[in-house]
Design brief:
With about 280 residues, the protein is of the alpha+beta class. The protein folds into 2 domains: about 5-115, D-amino Acid Aminotransferase, Chain A, domain 1; about 125-275, Alpha-Beta Barrel (D-amino Acid Aminotransferase, Chain A, domain 2). The chain is about 25% helix and about 30% strand. It contains 9 helices and 14 strands. The chain has helices spanning about 20-25, 45-55, 65-75, 80-85, 125, 155-160, 210-220, 230-235, 265-275, and strands at about 5-10, 30-35, 40, 85-95, 110-115, 130-140, 170-175, 180-185, 185-190, 195-200, 225-230, 240-245, 250-255, 260. The strands form 2 sheets. Strands 6, 7, 8, 9, 10, 11, 12, 13 and 14 form a 9-stranded mixed beta sheet that branches. It has a 5-stranded antiparallel beta sheet with strand order 1-5-4-2-3.
């Protein structure tokens, strides 16, 4: 698949009004998920997260049925092979409004679905793991927006622009207190002396669906994941580190900057537990 397709408010178009608040102010949220065998992977979890994210910024999330109608329309326009796999990004904005920051009293949310090809990852990242670069860009603390995937992603853009060395798969983001928060495009989990930990996201960062799936799996099996502040020193001393998102799944971190990490088969085990299919 090479074509990027769009569905906006139930129509197969690619244009959006300049007065749309998502375009003008980043006033909205989004989530990204895999399309495999014609079905959205982890759709119930993604929709639940969209609803929660919208609620935090006082947008009424469109119904799951309406979004699924848009999805079916979008993939129906593709050839059979292209309709079966890809990446689906769902964007919900507050809708159109007049100039100025004040949200309109009455506003119809805008629904945008984008279908693009599945990224082609080298097999080595699943077999040998990946290296991370510690970004100089820091995440600002804003509890009101912490955890949600809002459309203001300039910190991630600036951090990703730092990654010029092809040895590094992704960047490592910290806050201004020096706590490790996440990767540029995924969440972090660490293992230390049989304790599973993930950075707290109550001040900044994005709470991804794959992170939640891992936490749920451990909780179901009697080992809750500790959500806590983690320093860079703690991260480097971990017995194992993985990064996770809904596209590449779970990857073992084998190096951070010039520091070689302890490695095991944790990422492979998690992919197996979660039935993640490597494409």
């Amino acid at each position: 698949m090479t074509t990027v397709r769009y569905c906006i408010n139930g129509k197969l178009v690619s244009g959006i009004a300049p007065t749309n608040r998502g375009f003008a102010y980043g006033d909205g949220v989004f989530r990204t998920m895999r399309l495999l065998d014609g079905e959205l992977q982890d759709w119930p979890q993604h929709y639940q997260t969209l609803v929660a994210d919208c609620s935090k910024i006082q947008i009424v999330c469109p119904s799951a049925d309406l979004l699924m109608q848009d999805f079916r329309l979008l993939v129906s326009s593709a050839a059979a092979e292209e309709a079966a796999s890809g990446i689906i990004k769902i964007i919900i904005t507050r809708g159109e409004g007049a100039r100025g920051y004040a949200p309109p009293a009455i506003c119809e949310p805008t629904r945008v679905l984008v279908q693009s090809p599945l990224p082609v990852y080298p097999a080595a990242i699943y077999q040998q793991g990946v290296a991370l670069y510690t970004c100089q860009t820091r995440l600002a603390q804003q509890p009101l927006l912490a955890g949600i995937k809002h459309l203001n992603r300039l910190e991630n853009v600036l951090a990703r622009a730092e990654l010029k060395d092809p040895r590094f798969f992704d960047g490592l983001l910290r806050d201004y207190d020096g706590h490790v928060i996440e990767a540029v495009s995924g969440n972090l989990l660490i293992q230390k002396e049989n304790v599973i930990m993930t950075p707290a996201l109550d001040q900044c960062g994005v709470a991804g669906v794959m992170r939640q799936k891992i936490m749920d799996w451990y909780r179901t099996h009697g080992q809750p994941v500790a959500v806590t502040a983690i320093s860079l020193e703690q991260l480097l001393a971990a017995d194992a580190v993985v990064i996770a998102n809904s596209v590449y799944g779970v990857l073992q971190v084998t190096q951070i900057d010039d520091h070689v990490m302890a490695t095991d088969h944790w990422a492979k085990e998690l992919r197996s537990h979660l039935h993640y299919i490597i494409h």
